[in-house]
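Sequence and fold
=================
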Amino acid sequence: MAANNTQISIQPYLFFNGRCEEALDFYRSALGAEIVSMMRFSDSPEPHPGLQAGNENKVMHASVRIGETMLMASDGRCDGEPQFGGFTLAITVPNDAEADRVFDALGQGGKVEMPMTKTFWTSKFGMLEDRFGLGWMISVEHKP
């Protein structure tokens, strides 16, 4: 906690450059993601400088819950393929069967970087890049 007793919370904010709604549908199917709120550019009372015509119905902002985690997402400038670099999202699941299910679901159309395998710290661990280029590490909860 911060010195003033204010709780700090950090949420990843993901920019899908025109593919946000597709990504949210994918994560809803693969992970049970729940869209808590979503606003489109057309919902804004103010114009968006640089927004190309035809992108008015793209996602300006979405709040998404996956398990206990809140993510934020947007189509951003709607100007090309998503670019995710320098980070990966880690998912911890309760058992091997759920690890395999999540890994297979997120891997549809993506690229496996490390197949699910037993490691010295957990019964299953794997890494992949999903169809949007977002990196994921899937791991079974460590039970000492």
About this structure: The chain has a mean pLDDT of 93.
